[in-house]
Design a protein that fits this description.
The complex is a heterodimer of chains A (about 300) and B (about 325). Chain A has about 300 residues and is α/β, with parallel strands linked by helices. Chain A has 11 helices and 9 strands.
Chain lengths: ~300, ~325
């Protein structure tokens, strides 16, 4: 029987969800683009923004000049293609590759906006779960991506399914680094802690977290756990803090990732910063707490 | 045609028509229709009811647009008499008609070409719930220097950050390496999980050197399992629904765990020094069965601790290190 140790007392409610992206172990502190990065996995509870994070971080990395392959490992409920607006271009999937119906490069969907970003889906929706699909298939996939002629991609992002079932276990097989996506609420926190426990049992030690849908106004009113509270409860390094933003829904429905929005949005910029930390293998040293009241000038009374 | 009206009607419901003006509108419409019919000598085109409905709506729109309602009625009265004003009236009423017909034609087209698969992106676009012009074709944001975003500026004192023109206060992250390690240790105790490394199907015994936690059982109705010749479909079906008592895999896992536990206990028997003396003393108490001994315990706990004088336990020794073994010996008979 599992015994849960009581977490540090915290009066504020907190939400959390987890997402883990795969990342290479190679240290890459420079801004030069000569990095060879390995697969990462976004992992989390359902509805916390795993797929959104994968899409945005992936495209941010691509815009920074890295070659990125994003794998939608959410076999039953895949959505990454919709978020990227690539749903009409997915003709072949990994299942067809494994069946020998097509080559791997035919199944990779190249984004027209940034040609160094590629998407790979595991299977088509409504198709039956592939029989032979397991962790070994993903390991094979990652190996063949690394050894292809164009060269090893800098980042392989694997969008994990929610939960800790077989699909999740399969998805984390080939990962060596994880990004946990969570929202600051207690349900997400508990799930995230368990997910991190599983990852650590499986040998993935490099885990960072992104706290999504943070509202500074609610934190100020003590209606939401602060990011630092979340960190205290989970003990994970912070990769990013994404504020709640209505633009996220709009960009999802448009099939146009937030980070590409012009003019940029707050959440988009936060994703961009997170992507940059991923490159630098860095974590946050300080978090945004609240909006500072504007300094009032001498004439502000008169509305100047 | 009825479908046309039903599709296009909701478009007009949004016009804020007050009850009074609606009444006026219907009256107006009636007059208008009479005027048209008069104009065509009742022969040209008998418009169907649908058009009449639309007429009501269109004139309602006209009411909203032209707020001069009173002058409108007087105009209407004049209109029947004067051919010039009749022509003017036709001109003013014609554009809405054209508009209605166009809408009707368009929606009819949509009805016919509705796709067979509802819920697809193409279908959502057709139904107007998604905008086709906005799916992945707008111009993306490109930075001149992506490594230096002008919209994110850290303040001079590193305590503020300016994003999108708003200044936010920064709080330093306080998590230390030690705290991270503490959390890792906590999790490693709380969540114990092993990736399954051995796959067994129903009927396979668990090999003795395998940890039962790492076994994943392939269900009997799994395609891999059924390719094995020794499992027939009937057996697989019956196993799935667990009609015959405890499923095999649970039994096998239980037995393997039992063996593991026994092995652990045997090891413990060999090195008894592991058992701490305080706990061993705790275990002694329940074994004092007879009433005399209990009385003695109540009367003189010190005596009972030593236990030397008790005839019921002649083999007992005061040495606490041997106490656990003595209690085991007591259990045997």
């Amino acid at each position: 029987m599992l015994t849960l140790k009581p977490l540090p007392a915290n009066t504020k409610p907190s939400l959390l969800s987890s997402l883990t992206p795969f990342r290479p172990k190679t240290p890459n502190p420079n801004k030069t683009l000569q990095t060879s990065l390995k697969p990462r996995n976004p992992i989390s509870k359902g509805g916390v923004g795993k797929t959104t994070t994968t899409a945005n971080v992936g495209l941010s990395l691509a815009r920074l000049g890295f070659s990125v392959v994003s794998i939608d490992a959410d076999v039953g409920l895949r959505n990454l293609d919709l978020l990227l607006g690539l749903e009409n271009r997915v003709n072949y999937t990994l299942v067809e590759v494994m069946n020998g119906d097509c080559r791997l490069d035919q199944a990779l969907v190249r984004d027209k906006r940034w040609s160094n970003f590629e998407l790979l889906c595991i299977s088509k929706p409504r198709s039956k779960l592939p029989l032979g699909f397991g962790g070994k298939a993903l390991v094979w996939l990652v190996e063949s991506l690394k050894s292809r002629q164009e060269g090893c991609p800098d980042f392989i992002l694997i969008d994990c399914p929610a939960g800790i079932d077989a699909g999740f276990i399969t998805a984390i097989t080939s990962a060596n680094e994880a990004v946990l996506v969570t929202t600051p609420d207690i349900t997400s926190l508990r799930d995230a802690d368990r997910v991190v426990g599983l990852l650590e049992c499986d040998g993935i030690r490099d885990i960072k977290m992104i706290v999504n849908r943070v509202r500074t106004d609610m934190i100020k009113g003590e209606d939401m756990m602060s990011v630092l509270d979340v960190q205290e409860m989970l003990g994970l390094a912070l990769l990013g803090v994404i504020p709640e933003d209505t633009e996220v829904i709009r960009s999802t429905n448009r099939g146009y990732p937030l980070v590409l929005n012009k003019p940029p949005t707050l959440a988009g910029l936060a994703f961009e910063q997170a992507a940059w930390r991923l490159v630098e293998q860095d974590s946050m040293k300080a978090v945004m707490v609240e909006e500072e009241p504007k300094k009032r000038g001498f004439f502000s009374f008169f509305g100047v | 045609m009825t479908t046309t009206s039903s599709v296009s009607t909701p478009q007009f419901h949004s016009f804020p028509i007050q009850p009074a003006s609606l009444l006026w509108a219907s009256k107006h419409c009636f007059d208008l229709r009479a005027a048209i019919n008069n104009d065509n000598n009742n022969s040209a085109n008998p418009e169907d009811e649908e058009e009449e409905e639309q007429c009501i709506q269109d004139t309602g729109k006209a009411v909203v647009n032209n707020s001069e309602s009173e002058s409108g009625t007087t105009k209407l009265l004049d209109w029947k008499k004067d051919p010039i004003s009749k022509f003017q009236g036709m001109i003013t009423t014609l554009p809405p008609f054209v508009f209605v017909m166009k809408r009707g034609a368009g929606s009819n087209f949509v009805m016919k070409s509705r796709p067979s698969r509802p819920g697809s992106v193409a279908d959502l676009v057709r139904r107007g719930q998604l905008r086709s012009d906005r799916r992945g074709i707008s111009t993306p944001l490109k930075y001149e220097d992506p490594f230096n975003n002008p919209l994110v500026k850290v303040g001079k004192s590193n305590s503020t950050i300016e994003i999108c023109g708003k200044v936010y206060r920064l709080a330093p992250v306080t998590l230390t390496e030690e705290q991270q390690a503490i959390h890792q240790r906590r999790r490693s105790r709380a969540y114990q999980w092993k990736r399954p490394t051995i796959f067994l199907k129903e009927g396979d015994p668990i090999p003795p050197d395998v940890d039962p936690d790492t076994v994943r059982w392939i269900p009997a109705n799994h395609p891999f399992a059924t390719t094995a010749s020794d499992i027939d479909e009937d057996l697989a079906q019956s196993n799935v629904y667990q009609k015959h008592g405890v499923p095999f895999r649970i039994k096998a896992e239980h037995e393997a765990l039992q063996r593991k536990l026994e092995a652990l206990q045997n090891e413990q028997k060999l090195n008894k020094l592991v058992i701490d003396t305080g706990n061993a003393k705790e275990f002694e108490r329940p074994f004092r069965f007879n009433a005399k001994a209990n009385e003695l315990v109540e009367q003189n706990p010190l005596n009972s601790q030593s236990g030397d004088s008790k005839p019921s336990k002649p083999d007992r020794t005061p040495n606490p290190f041997n106490s656990s073994s003595s209690s085991e010996e007591m259990q045997k008979p």
